[in-house]
Amino acid sequence: MDAGQVEALFTRADGQFLFARWGRPIAPVVFGVEDATLNVVKGALEAVVALAGHQMAETDPELGSNLMMFFFTDWAELPQVPGMDRLVPDLGPLVEKLQSVEANQYRFFRFDEAGAIKACFVFLRMDRHLLDVPAETLALSQVVQSMLLWSDAAFRDQSPLAVAGERTILRPDVAGLIRAAYDPVLPSAATDASHALRLFARLQAGGDVQ
Description:
alpha/beta; globular
């Protein structure tokens, strides 16, 4: 991965560079899955958080849970969830848009005063495409995409995951970038593309850059 590719991963379709990582411990909760799948999601989250050198918590003092993952079968179910309209602004129009494009996933982030991620809401409509994806693969993919504010086109052409034998793993370059992004020397948020050069330098040096 070169510096241009790093920059592209955080450059949105409108040309804006926007980087953010979590600024607080992650307190997750998962809705709509059986215990076996819940354990898979938890395992994926623990692994990626450990990779980043970040922290998890039982609760968030402000929000209770700050990473919420919802698994369901129809977008029409969302407005029926009590309090959902307070978590996600303009929920009605959003649901209509997601239905119109037959989307099967959506992520919504909230940020603190410094621009760092303070909450993430992951919505997965389990259509036939997602149902065909192994639980381990789906969980790892969603966790990776929730760890940073990636570009809206970041993984459109290439998955952040790779196949190693019979296992699905996080691509080594993406794993290295996540580790670099959580270097405590770096700011938790940035809007200047020069930040990509700092990430690239740490990626090249394995994170050991001052």
